Amino acid sequence: MSHKKRQIIAIIPASGVGSRMQASVPKQYLPLNGKTILEHTVSLFLDHPQIDKIIVAVSPSDPYYAELELLKSPKIQLVFGGETRADSVFNGLQVVDDQAWALVHDAARPCLKRSDLDKLLQIDDHNGAILATPAVDTMKRANGNTILHTEDRSTLWHALTPQFFRADLLRQALQSAFEKGQSVTDEASAMELAGFTPQLVAGRSDNLKITRPEDLALAAFYLTQTEEETK
């Protein structure tokens, strides 16, 4: 670990609409335990002593973000996102110093525990790292709805966020993937395509991504548990 304090910038892509939630507003603005999902998520990083700044990528047509007082914090910078998550992250990286480290986290993952975040922030390797959980369910490869075979789950992991990389390397990896028309589903996939080998940092399974309506109740339960633990 370098003795010089690294600049760490959290980037939260929040310009999606979350169509699978079937809600009247983008899912990041849905209410959850008295706040919006986005407010819970941003709050995870606001008071962390190692995080210098938070960049939130919102849609240019988003009428909701201006209503959130939390996003007016001097520690937060808003940028406009793009059509895809990768585009939004790339736009956020444009205002990040090359020597900084980018910590990318899903707007719809409000249940991240500080202990997992702290473990990830210990990584200081140019390959970067992501939070992930080992696959515990039996994994099937399919053709449509037909099973082709059962995968060996011993080498499979579920990728989570945050994902943590040097800003300049991640920016270059995304740019290269865009130019080659390669599919980028998360930051690690862009880094892999560029020849890097990110580390897996085992995280908690309650760091869920709110994707479907039933996920809201589970997230509310996890957040209530966390609040009771910290009383």
Structural class estimated from helices and strands:
alpha/beta
Unreliable residue stretches? none
Average of pLDDT: 94
What's the CATH class, please? Alpha Beta
Strand content: 15-25%
| Order of helix and strand elements from N to C terminus | EEEHEEHEHEEEEHHEH
CATH architecture annotation name: Alpha-Beta Complex
For CATH, the homologous superfamily is named as Spore Coat Polysaccharide Biosynthesis Protein SpsA, Chain A
How does this structure look, described?
The chain has 231 residues and is an alpha/beta fold. A seven-stranded mixed beta sheet has the order 5-4-1-6-10-7-11, with helices on both faces. The chain has a single domain, classed as Spore Coat Polysaccharide Biosynthesis Protein SpsA, Chain A (Alpha-Beta Complex). It has helices spanning 37-46, 85-93, 114-121, 167-180, 187-193, 213-229; strands at residues 8-13, 31-32, 35-36, 53-58, 76-80, 101-104, 129-134, 140-143, 146-150, 157-166, 199-202. 28% of the residues lie in helices and 23% in strands. The longest helix has 17 residues, at 213-229. Pathway: Isoprenoid biosynthesis; isopentenyl diphosphate biosynthesis via DXP pathway; isopentenyl diphosphate from 1-deoxy-D-xylulose 5-phosphate: step 2/6. Catalyzes the formation of 4-diphosphocytidyl-2-C-methyl-D-erythritol from CTP and 2-C-methyl-D-erythritol 4-phosphate (MEP).
